[in-house]
User: What shape does this take?
Amino acid sequence: MMALLAMMTIISCKKDTRSLDDQLTAAGTLSAPANATALRLQPGGSSVPFKWSAANAADGGVVLYEVAFDKADGNFSTPVYRVLSDGSGVQAQATIPQDTLNKIASLAGIASSSTGTLKWTVMASKATNLQTTASTNSLQITRPAGFAVPPTTLFLTGTGTEAGGTDLSKAIAFKQTAPGVFELYTSLQAGNYQFSDKATSAGTRYYVDGSGTIQQGSQTTTVGSTVGPYRIRLNFNVATSNIVSIQSLGLFMSAYNTEIGQLSYAGNSTWSNARIPVEFYQFSWGRDERYKFALHTSAGVEYFGSSNVNNVAPSGQPTSYFNLLPVSNSQWDNTYKFDPSIDKRNAKVDVYFKPSAAYTHTATAVN
Assistant: This one.
């Protein structure tokens, strides 16, 4: 009986195995975008739907799709880019962001602010069977200004910089304020400068041309007649630059509605004044100690202050209390409050626009 039971168990455990049928016909008509469609890409623009008629699997099973892109004279043997279709590859359409199409156009050799042609087709697969649609559609792509793949880090180098040379190991890092957007408070002297996405010789080099457009290449930009502190802003998404000289940084006291002292550039993205006389203003209700900062640039005056419109006293507050943010020119809003110990004394004030941390400042009483 035991032997019979064992035999019956073995028989019942046999699997019903079948050979995998990977027979597949290629996807059919490419319906959208239509052949020779012209696309003018915009950063962050609406996604573009790519559609085709489905492939047929002999066993009715799941088929995976990829949209393949190639140069105008390519044959798709080594596509420049492949995009999985919607639904993790099972739908007969792919919704592709314009930023991705911009990257694909760049890989195909179409320069920014230029127009060129791409080809696309569909690859359908089941197991190891890959079928490429015989038909292709062309796309006339006009790329926006900017870089399809902007750098994620950026450094300043050159004889006209605070680093004082072209040794990239000493290059000055930028702060990244948004993807592809960088900012640096520094000084420039007689000489030239350029940018690199790495602090090594392997980095990709960039420069700003005479129109203020960011270009890729090893050329340098010559420092103009104005030497001293600058703010450099670069947006690689649209290849634009904004470089302004900084004429002064003032300590603005609200009750007097004026700047009561000026800070000098001390290098390393820092402004300082060792002794600014401070006296709180006497109102009927008490003494007023509110202040913020006025940055005078070649483009105009900007104010930096607190994120709090109505602020509290600094005692017991976290270090973020002193963080600097762009604010309005309102006489009273977004100000800080001096520590009471500073009243009728000198204040040592330091402002730090360092790229490695939040912009901030200190104000302490000195004799």
In short: The chain is about 5% helix and 45% strand. The radius of gyration is 31 Å. The domain at 26-142 is CATH 2.60.40.10 (Immunoglobulin-like). Helices lie at 2-12, 98-107.
